[in-house]
HTH marR-type domain-containing protein (Sphingopyxis macrogoltabida), 185 residues
Amino acid sequence: MGEALDTANASNEELYARVSQIEQLILRMMGDTAKPERLPEDSLIPAQLPFGPSSARLGTGTQAVERADAAPSGFPLGRAKFVRRLIRHRRRREHHFPADIFADPAWDMMLDLYAAHYERREISVSSLCIAAAVPATTALRWIKLMVDEGRFVRIADPDDGRRIIVRLSDEARLQLDEYFDDFDD
């Protein structure tokens, strides 16, 4: 993977293959680290990769409010911080590749809702659409699909009848807990 890829002339398949290689490298690197929340900010995209680190700092676009229910006691807030950092690094891909090869927003939405759970924040449908970084109609279609599949739950905001809150289902949150627990080993 040490040779540079000519992104201007590469096919989508080549770009996708390279992204998959980088993702595997990231997962291996994180597997060697006892606590992922201690990773330096740019360590997930090392300088020796052909694309190099990006200095851009992109947020998720999520506007959130405090949640009333508490996160499980003893659960590290570092997990939410780690997930937010992972989201930022995923956004950085778009500096190196065409955004349309990353068009499926489901994973980004799940990560955003997962981090929000442990930050004790509510995420509205409109905020989740913004965080997905895809057209609103696409984001809404994916939210509906994820609700239909039982991964997301839509809840009317008790303080604002115009607003709908989206949360991960308990099952989806537990699956993500297990996924991220693998990083802690």
Summary: Residues 12-184 form a domain with the Arc Repressor Mutant, subunit A fold (CATH 1.10.10.10).
